[in-house]
Each structure stands twice: as structure tokens, then as C-alpha cells.
Write a structure and sequence with these properties.
The protein is built from 35 helices and 6 strands. The chain is mostly helical. Strand 5 and strand 6 form a beta hairpin. Helix 21 crosses helix 22.
Amino acid sequence: MSTLWQTIVRALACLGLTGSAASAAPVDFTREVRPLLVKRCLACHDAEHAKGGLRLDSREATLKGGKSKQPTLVPGAPAQSELIKRITTHDPDELMPPKGGALTSAQVALLTRWIAEGASWPADSAAKHWAFVPPVRPPLPAVKNQSWPQNPIDHFILAKLEENGLQPSPPAAPRTLIRRLHLDLLGLPPAPDAVEAFLQPSPIGIRQSAIANLVDSLLASSHYGERWGRHWLDLARYAESNGYERDAAKPSVWRYRDYVIAAFNSDKPYDRFIREQIAGDELPDANAETLIATGFHRLGPWDDEPADSLQDRADQVDDMIRTTSQAFLGVTLGCARCHDHKFDPLTARDYYSLAAVFAPLKRTQSGRSDLDAPVGTRVELTALAERDQRIATLTKEMEAARSVFRTEFLAGGKSALPADAVAAIRTEAKQQTPAQKELVKKFTPQLESELAKALPAETREKLTATEATLAELRRATPDLPRGYFPSEPSPAAPKTFVLLRGSAHNPGPEVFPAVPVALTAKQPAFPAPDEFTTRRRLTVANWIASADNPLTARVIVNRVWQHHFGEGLVRTPSDFGLIGTAPTHPELLDWLADWFVKEGGWSVKKLHRLILASATWQQASGSKQYSVFSVQSKSGAGAAKAKLNTDLLNTEHSSATIDPENLLLSHFPYRRLEVEAIRDSMLAMSGRLNLRVGGPSMYPEVPKEALAGSSDPDKIWKPFDQADASRRTVYAFLKRSFMVPLLEVLDVCDTTQSSDKRAVTSVAPQALTLFNGAFVNRQARHFADRLRREAGAVPAAQIERAWQLALARSPKPEELTAMQRFLSEETANQLKEAAAASKSISADEAAHDALTQMCRVVLNLNEFVYPD
């Protein structure tokens, strides 16, 4: 027996964990053991590989063992189990796993304890996985502190805290709360007058009704959709170019972005939001808006010159399947493309049955050109098609008449053009020499002038009448807006086959439309096609948007929770499968999902109101808030305040020890704003924020050095227009092969795939960009101009105004003193440096330069980019 194994056995024996089940909660196979086996064992010991004849993907196969005569797993007897011996041996030739390093002592102890408890391995664990069972609303848990909860959410949070011997934090300070609300819902800081109005004294303090009124006003703002629509665009892998080598722009794709923003602003019911994006063209009331919504399927990267067109087509369908399953259902169905899902009960047949749903979709294109198309109701589109057909016929007739006259004119020697030019024009384009092409280009305008003068009156009258008819056709049936979306060119669907190992060149059995078996008790009925489409996507959309779907409501309420708290109740928001993170508060998740559908009516704004009204969301974020709260409280004497502070700090210490990741939400999380909110807040501070809503995207300024690396630096990016580029960041053009450096360095999402959670990094280029970048320095200058306009020339007033605008508070005495000293010293330095360089600069100019530097500092404060 190895030394490590002996140590583990002795430790477990001391805890009473060998030979019998532990007195503590038993090991959870689904949450603890299975993920470990998947991560470290199944690469070699699944059904596909089974090295040494051993499989570890089911209890039956593991008990059967491999080629070795030793039993791999002996339930209740870890010392006799070859599995434990092989992960604890010191023999490098015997140690498992062979790659990635040995298992940690904690992992070995986990497996040992699991086997000692009987190696429970539920055969139906996948079928009974919590996320695949429809949510049932649980009763509110009992709590000791009856005065703290403000709504049902708080009961679930407080019950967990009390269970772990913790208490929630006190309420956030009023100034903190209003700033948090504005940045959370709008992505913009509150104006000073809004802050002061919110802080007006009241006999009962800041009432919940005042908070509710503020929330209502913020949700009614058009800026709300710009903030929360961006969250959805991350999931939809929204970008405005195709990626790959040429990375051409997607025409009119910005209309999808505007659709999403408008959907959030209008509080479009989420079930309708689902149907429009998955099957907007198949809805009975399909119109321009729903067609644009269907652009969801076409947002991913597209190779305009694939090396293998069959495989590329399979990749396009795969992109639709992956994005749809992750964004709406929180499952990684794309993992079943080449074989059955290794972890979840999702099969390759499930995958290709869904591929049969999306296979009829085609993109509008002409060769390597990606095209948009008109959007409207079916009646409008039919009328437009009939108009265009009539226009095409009349145009062809006009061209034919002109061509006949032109041929006769040239053949009759009536043209004054040189003979070689006439000969070149009469030669078919395909047979023209380079020299003849030059002659055609040079003399065509002269020929057209001759033809116009020589045209017979009768022919001219006919052409004039035809042109009038064309004008009337266009007047009677105007052009429609254009959108970027796929369509089904025929209601007859192509056959779909399982592609063995994911290869488009290796088809297996034919499959038909269906939804994943493990996610439904009964397959939806797929109707026959109508005269326009297969109606397959509408069937799937209705299934996803059904109140009976076990995943849909859970997934969206978790996403909303995630963006309010920084993390979801499920911290893998697009993976609710067996190896996804289990919910920290499963009962609360189910309660919210059930409420969202039945009482909330699929309204995201109602869900916002519920979450934001909770004492949980209104908590302070840390000890800084505790001291503010104690000063503002009415607890009386200083000794009582000191004791309150001590108690709160002790609570903070306890929560940091017991719950270091704040899974139990004993305080509001401290987190940085996303790049969009940081950039927009800077524009708001400078007074240069352009509030124009929607329309074609703007192009932020990028350094010339960044453009220099492009093969076509003069065409890759449009010239900088400061007014247009000062629009909100959600309207910035997103080019997959060239991301704006400011956005990239501050962790904008990966646009090549659905992104459920952005990375939050802290690297040196961020500080350099925010302090030395052209954008921040420009806004600092504008900010200084604003301070002089609004606060005058007195430094103290300028500092006060800067703090109120940027931080929603007055500067502390020490901050005011430090900034006054800085402005004085910096002004003197500016004058001294100018004199040394023999430059003429006034005291006023020097003071303005100093104020600009102070503004740059303010825009770089941690407090500016962290809501709390």
C-alpha cells in the first residue's frame, strides 16, 4: 500500500469514513464524482476509446472492469478497488491518469469516500437531473429575522445565510443605491440633480416606494434597452462582419441590433422574443420586425470561399444549433455533433434531428457576396416581388429597343466615332482585346449622346411612356426596408442524415425533425409545410417558449439575475447540464422561473422590479458601506455606533471565511463595469454623449498604428467623426478581424460564438489605455470645459462639481485639499515649462490644462468604474 494511500485511509478512518457511509452528507455523484471522471478519466476510458478494455462511463461498465483481473470498483471497499490503487501508486508506469499530473489529495479522498459509501451511481441520474425536470414553485422558507425580507427572494437568501450562521449586510447608502441603479439599468451614471432629488429627507427615510418609482422611470428610458440589449447581443454572437480572410460587412445587420434594443425597451414578452428570433418568418403575423429578428440565425461567422462547401454548410447549421441550444435552453447540444454527448443525455440523433429543423434555411448571397433582402408582411413582399418582376420586364423591353436602334445606328455608319472605336463597341465584350476595352470606355459617353439625338420620335415616345410607367410602379409600391436574415426558399425540406463523426462526406441514417428526447415528456407534432415554409422552426420555437419546457424560464431568470449580481444562481449560465455548476439556491431559481411565467407573464421588466425591490439586491457591498450606514443610522450614542461597526465587521470577516466567493450573497458583490458602460460614462461626464438612437453603426477612433497592420489600412475603417463616434458604445461597428483596441483591452466578448459571461481581467494595458489613450484624454479635455462652464473658475467649485458628476457624492475634505493643491502646483508647472520652452501661455490656459489633468485622474478612479 502506498504512503499516500495509507495517509488517506488513516485520515478517513479518523473521520469515520472507511468501511461505512460517512455521517456527513453523502458524496453527490452528479455534482462531484461525475465531473471528475469526465475531466480526468473519460478521455481514455469512454465507450469510444476504452483503453485497456476499461470503461468508466457507467457503473455497469466500471464494475465489469478491463483486461486486468483486479476489480476496478468494489463498492464499500476502496482498499480493494483497483481504481484507488492506480491513482495513488508511486510507480510512474502504473499511475493514472498518465497525463495532466496526478489527482490531488482532495480528489483522491473524494473518490475514496464515494466508494466507501457504496459507489452510488444512479443509472437514471441524467434523466432526473434537476434542470431537466419542470420547476415546481416551492414554499417560502422560514427565517428567524422576520424584519429583513422585503419580498419572497429575501426569504430564500436569508434562510441560507442563517443556516450557515451568517447575517446579511445592511442596506447600501442612498447615494450608492441610486448610482448602482442607474449603472445597472442604464449603463450611465445619475445626474447630480437626480441624486439630490432622490436624497430629499422623508419622515421614514428612503421609502421602498421611492426606489420603485425610480426603477420605473429608469425602465421607461430608451437607454435601458441599449444597456440590456447588449447583454443579449453577447449571447447572439452579434458582429457586423463575416470573419475569415475577407471579413466583409454584413449588410443591414444593424437592424437586428436595433430590434433587440427595441424589444427590451417595449418589454416584449420573452416567449414572443423567442418565437420571433427562431421562426419570425413562420409566424402567422410575420412582418418586417419578425423577419429582422430571424437574423439571429445568420449572425455567426461565414466563410465566403470555403475549401469544402459541404462541410461548410454543416458548419453553418452547427452554428445555428449551438447558439439556439445555449442561448435559450442552456444546454451544449453542439457537443453531440460527432458522437453522443459525453456528459448529458443528448444523443447524436438528437443533434441531427434538430439539424433537420434548421437545414431548410439558406442565406441570401450572390457568389461570394453576402446580401440583405427586403422585409415586410407577406402581402407587402408579394406586392414588391410582383412590382420588381413587372419592372424587370419593362426594363428588358426598353433595353432591347435601345439595343436594336444602337446596332442599326452603328451598322449604318451614322456615328462620328473613329472606325476602330465603332468596331470595338460592336465586338462582344468577351471577345474584346484590352485595347478595345479602353476604346469602349473612352467613346461610350460620346456614342450615348449621339444616340439620344438620333432616336426616332416614335421610339422616344415609347421609352418615355415606359419610364413613366416604371415611376408609377415605384410610387404605388415603394421599396421596403432591408434586413439581414436567412430564409427558406422552398417549403420542401432537404433530407437530413446523421453525419458520422461529424463529417458531411460520411452520411449515416436519415433523421427527421424532433427535439431532444431527454428534455421533453412528449415530442411536439411537426405539421405539414404551408405554401411558404416547412414550419419546422415554429414548432421548435413553440416548444422552447412553452411554460412546460423545463429549461427556458430557468435559463432566462438566471441570466437576468447574473447581470444584476455579477454571477447567476447557476454560475455556468449557458450550461445547465450535468457538469454545469449546480444552482447555489435551487429553490429560489425554481420559484423565480415559476413566477416569471405565471405571474410575471414572461415580462423581463417585471422580473427586474422584483429583484431590485429585494433587500438582497439593496445590500451594501463592503465595510466602506458599513461605516456610511452607521453614521447615517439613528442608533444614538457613539458607543452604540462603534458596537454596530464592530458587529458588522465581524460579520464581514465571518462571511469571508465561510463564504469567500459570496455564493450565499451576504453582501452585494463588488464588480467592475463592462467596457460599454465605462466608455459611455466617460462620454456622459464630458457632456459629449450623442444620444441618437439606432441606425447604421458608428466608427470609434482607432490608432493609426492599429490600422497599419492591415493589408488595406485605408479601407478597413471609416474616417473618424467625433460627433457620430460619441454615440453609445452599443452602436459601435464590430468587425471580427479588427476589434477597436479600447473595447478589446477592456474585455469585450468573443463575437465568434455565443458568450454567456465576459472575462474580467486586470492587465497593464488597461491602465495604460485608460490613462494615456486618445479617447480618455479627449474626454478629459471636454470634461474640463464642462466644469468651467458649470462651476466657474474657482477650483473648489470645479472639484465639487467633478465629484458630483462622476461619483454622485461630494469630495471628502482630504480629497478636496489634495485636488486643490494639485491644481495649484500643476498650473505653476505648466507656466514654468512653457517659460523654459520659450512658449507663451496665459495663467488661464495653464489652469485649464491642470484641470484637464485632474479630470483624467477622476476618469481613472476605481470608484468611477465600480458601481459601489
